[in-house]
Amino acid sequence: MFGFSFPKIILLVFIIFVVWQVFRIFEKKNKLKNNLSSSDERENDSYESLVECKNCGNFYSLHERKICPVCGEKN
Ligand SMILES: [Zn+2]
Prior knowledge:
Elements: H1 6-49, E1 50-52, E2 59-61
Antiparallel strand pairs: 1-2
């Protein structure tokens, strides 16, 4: 006969708790991975779009403007 006994319920709760914790750890790892990769992409994007001014050494985005915002020099 199938009966609910206190130790069985405790064991069931414990198994659910362990599975839940393992799932949370995996989710955290995935989140960290995604954050790292997305920040890498952002760095690459900004690196590609930034241009150093030959006159004053200021970095600015080529996509936004073609002349330096600091000294007005065209590169
Ligand atoms: Zn400049």
